[in-house]
Design a protein that fits this description.
The chain is α/β, with parallel strands linked by helices. The chain is built from 23 helices and 19 strands. Strand 16, helix 21 and strand 17 form a beta-alpha-beta unit.
Length: 591
């Protein structure tokens, strides 16, 4: 149960005390409007109901300046993704000599006033010094590391000095070095104060705060930083990204009602155009767009074909459910066609009644209220937890096309006389890679997605994956799939720990897009064959029961009833190979 489902829209809660009925309106959508819309004030934040989060997150903050001001306003933002934080603050230490602190922390934050080093270090020397500290921290933990950069502080006197002669040069070059460093160190990310300061301008700094508490930021800046941490960075490093957005159309993507105003009568405002462009960016980043609308599908198709001024086109939507069925039913259809759990979908609609129905019928779906102008919708999606992207998604360009191809595959299956004919018609090619370092990001991404086919639920860090790829004690097999309809990219991975004549299969993850064609079984046989070639005789398989990984566990039970016990690799290979011996698929092992 997450925060959004504890404050279900405008549900009226009645409490009886001594015969007096107290009417309290708890509204999640109003809370979202406050938290994710224009930057809220501290007073507004104080009026947001507080509920304990189910997910406990421990932060360790290494600091040279106060972090308490930011920490004090983080809880409402964290509650949006059901998180509640505890914090371990270091002493003020400009040398970061005790870096690391409590090794059990989920995230480590380096929080520094970099002005302290202006006079004593050049920009490059400061970057080299920070690199040494971060590498020390990385040697002690594989958890995410966040480090702040520094804004080019504005002073009226700076107008007389070029970037080459003033202090802005130090901040700019230091930030560039810090960015390069974050790319060098695995799972290290920038708290981009420089970018936040661009939005707030002169309001970012507060000289009074600086003189009183050695904390140079204004209250506005403090809230903006807390929101960036609470809705962008922390959910991005700790939780899977949202996989799909289910969009209403009328008064959401444009101004007007298609069935009443007609295609030409709809208004695409500047805000709606920017909103559609944002959605297009999200699609290109790997998120799937879908339509969940009360309209005729043919009318919707004509809308996107005729309105060439719309940034979005018909082919940008992985699934379209435009009909007069209840929207919760359509949402279930969308999740089934995408082969994902409804909890990975954000439902956007301007009608509170539709949002309430969705919440009542499918509590796991995430909700966002659109506004007719489009402006607030744009801002709220820009801050919605789970939408922020940290890394380039290597499969982003393939995902929507692959889902659309799945619908064509379903038609082929219905037209085929038997399952074997269907598989043969696909002309599938499976490519197998072993310890392919260029697949590190993809393995990390798949591990952190809410897959139904995730056997051990390890949620490996990027640092772990990098270490496994380089180690002779690990075998990581990645699986690429293509067929006559689309290239699905890297859709699966097996991670094995090797110990002389024994091995542990510590994770199996496959994309939901690839299920139903026995690719996981074919690849599993190739893994077992590779283990035999390496002299491995016994295998144990790690399995964890999660709320949504039943498909993975049921698949394994076809071959093994007691995965916790050692299995004979040769016997298991024989069983797995026999199960797909007649499957028409070409398998290539890439050296």
């Amino acid at each position: 149960m997450i925060f959004s489902h504890k404050l279900l829209l405008r549900i009226t809660a009645y409490y009886c005390t001594g015969g007096i009925i107290i009417n309290r309106q708890l509204t999640y959508l109003d809370a979202l409007d406050t938290l994710l819309g224009p930057l809220p004030t501290r007073r507004q934040l104080n009026h947001i109901p507080r509920f304990p989060g189910q997910r406990k997150v421990k932060l360790r903050v290494e600091r040279t300046m106060p972090f308490e001001f930011i920490h004090s306003v983080m809880p409402p933002f964290l509650s949006l993704w059901d998180a509640e934080e505890t914090i371990d603050l270091s002493p003020y230490d400009t040398s970061f000599s005790s870096i690391g602190g409590d090794a059990s922390a989920d995230v480590f934050i380096l929080w520094s006033d970099w002005r302290l080093y202006y006079e004593s270090m050049t920009e490059q020397a400061a970057c080299d010094w920070v690199k040494e500290r971060i590498l020390t921290l990385r040697s002690r933990t594989d958890k995410p590391i966040l480090i702040n950069n520094w804004p080019e502080q504005y002073e009226i006197e700076d107008k007389l000095f070029s970037i080459q002669t003033g202090k802005r040069k130090w901040a700019r070059q230091f930030n560039e070095g810090l960015f390069r460093l974050s790319n060098l160190v695995s799972d290290c990310w920038i708290i981009d104060l420089s970018y936040i300061a661009l939005e707030l301008g002169e309001a970012f700094f507060d000289s009074r705060n600086d003189s009183v508490s050695h904390y140079p930021f204004s209250d506005q800046a403090t809230i903006a930083i807390a929101r960036h941490l609470g809705v962008h960075l922390l959910p991005a490093v700790l939780s899977p990204r949202i996989k799909a957005i289910a969009l209403d159309l009328d008064d959401t993507l444009y101004d007007g009602v298609l069935g009443e105003d007609g295609v030409d009568g709809l208004t695409l405002s500047d805000a709606h155009s920017r909103l559609q462009n944002l959605l297009l960016q999200l699609k290109r980043s790997g998120m799937m767009l879908t339509i969940c609308s009360r309209n005729e599908e043919q009318d919707v198709r004509e809308l996107f074909q005729q309105r060439t001024d719309f940034p979005l086109g018909w082919d940008d939507f992985a699934v379209v459910c435009a009909n007069w069925n209840p929207k919760p039913d359509n949402l279930i259809t969308i999740s089934q066609k995408l082969n994902i759990d409804p909890s990975a979908i954000l439902f956007v609609d301007d009608n509170p009644a539709e949002l309430l129905k969705m919440a009542n019928h499918i509590p796991a779906v995430r909700l966002l209220r659109a506004d007719p102008s489009g402006e607030q919708t744009l801002i709220k999606i820009s801050h919605y937890p789970g939408c922020y992207q940290l890394l380039q998604d290597d499969s982003a360009s393939l995902r929507t096309a692959d889902i659309q191809a799945n619908q064509a595959r379903a038609e082929l299956k219905n037209q085929s006389s038997d399952y074997g004919s269907y598989l043969k018609s696909l002309q599938m090619i499976v490519r197998i890679y072993v310890n392919e370092a260029t697949h590190t990001n993809r393995v990390f991404e798949m591990s952190h997605k809410t897959n139904q086919f995730n056997l051990a639920l390890r949620r490996m860090s990027k640092t772990e994956v990098e270490q496994f790829m380089k180690s002779s004690e690990y075998l990581i097999m990645t699986v690429q799939l293509s067929d006559i309809l689309s290239d699905s990219g890297i859709i699966g991975t097996f991670v094995c720990r090797l110990k002389q004549e024994k091995a542990e299969l510590i994770e199996v993850v496959f994309s939901c897009r690839a299920l139903g064609r026995e690719i996981e079984t074919i690849a599993f046989a190739r893994l077992l064959n590779r283990l035999l070639e390496l002299g491995i005789k016994q295998l144990t398989i790690e399995v964890q029961e999660g709320p949504r990984n039943a498909p993975a566990r049921e698949w394994l039970q076809r071959f093994i009833t007691d995965p916790g016990n050692e299995q004979s690799v040769s016997d298991l290979y024989a069983r797995v190979s026999a199960s797909y011996s007649s499957y028409p698929v070409e398998v290539e092992e890439i050296p």
